[in-house]
Design a protein that fits this description.
This is 5-oxoprolinase subunit PxpB. Keywords: Hydrolase. The longest helix has 18 residues, at 26-43. The protein is an alpha+beta fold and 245 residues long. The strands form 4 sheets. It has a 5-stranded mixed sheet. The chain has a 4-stranded antiparallel sheet with strand order 1-2-4-3, covered by helices on one side. The relative contact order is 0.17. The chain has 2 domains: 7-82, Gyrase A, domain 2 (2-Layer Sandwich), CATH 3.30.1360; 91-243, Cyclophilin-like (Cyclophilin). The protein has helices at 26-43, 69-82, 108-115, 119-128, 221-233, and strands spanning 7-10, 15-19, 49-54, 57-62, 91-99, 131-136, 143-146, 161-164, 168-172, 175-178, 183-185, 188-192, 213-219, 239-243. The protein is elongated, with a radius of gyration of 20 Å.
């Protein structure tokens, strides 16, 4: 894996921001995750550091003390040069059910008009692709999924909604994603996922990690209602497949 030119700068008194070239690229994401793994397992174990990988950056937050930026940035450059051969953590492909019923896909017909695709064509294309998790944020458990086909690229809504339902599946620009809880939002809503990938009561509240993959599959309204109940009582098992390194 080739090295990239890095930008390292302070991010307040207790954090450091490491940035790769500003491009959404799977090779860059892989490099970030390898460096993240190297720091986590070799350099910053049990030292109060929290690390957040996303798109083309890695944010490192020190929870207990101020950061000596000059010394720490020099260490980061040295560690980055040493990370070659690091094996990333195990990745998974998560298959998530989505109901594209118009009661849930409240922007499907408008998206159909704008994209010049029929509603069935939008559903077919949305479920045919595998998406990469490039970041988790905005809301706890909100996945920013890259890999949307160009034919489904659509601008955000000019006026965001004050309430978007939990589980809403949306499109915005080159991305798709799921709202993990009710919130305001400006994405184009095309369906709803009845099962949650985030549970604040768990030690690891978000099932999915940056670098994992997501694939959606279409379900009927009756299947949605069933899976919703199964999820609420804790018996629904999300399909999870290992991705070969």
């Amino acid at each position: 894996m080739k090295p990239y030119p890095l930008s390292i700068r302070p991010y307040g008194l207790r954090a450091v921001l490491v940035e790769w070239p500003s491009t959404v690229d799977e090779a860059i994401l892989e490099d970030i995750l390898c460096f993240y793994r190297y720091l986590k397992t070799k350099c910053l174990k049990d030292t109060g550091w929290e690390m957040i990988p996303a798109y083309n950056s890695l944010t490192l937050v020190q929870n207990y003390k101020l950061v000596d930026f000059k010394n720490f940035s020099a260490k980061l450059k040295k560690w980055y040069a040493e990370k070659s051969g690091t094996i990333p953590e195990q990745r998974y492909l998560w298959r998530l059910p989505v109901c594209y019923d118009l009661d849930f896909g409240i922007d499907l017909e408008l998206a159909s008009e704008k994209l010049r695709l029929s509603v069935p064509e939008i559903i077919e294309q949305h479920t045919a692709h595998v998406y990469r998790v490039y970041g988790i944020g905005f809301l706890p458990g909100f996945m920013y999924l890259g890999g949307l086909p160009e034919s489904l690229e659509i601008t955000r809504k000019e006026t965001p909604r004050l309430k978007v339902a939990k589980g809403a599946v949306g499109l915005a620009g080159k991305q798709t994603g799921i709202y993990p809880q009710e919130s305001p939002g400006g994405w184009n809503i095309i369906g709803n996922c009845p099962v949650s990938i985030f549970n604040a009561k768990e030690d690891h509240p978000c099932l999915v990690s940056v670098g994992d993959q997501i694939q959606f599959y279409s379900i009927s309204r009756a299947e949605y209602d069933l899976h919703k109940i199964e999820g609420e009582v804790g018996i629904y098992k999300i399909e999870k497949l290992k991705i070969d390194a």
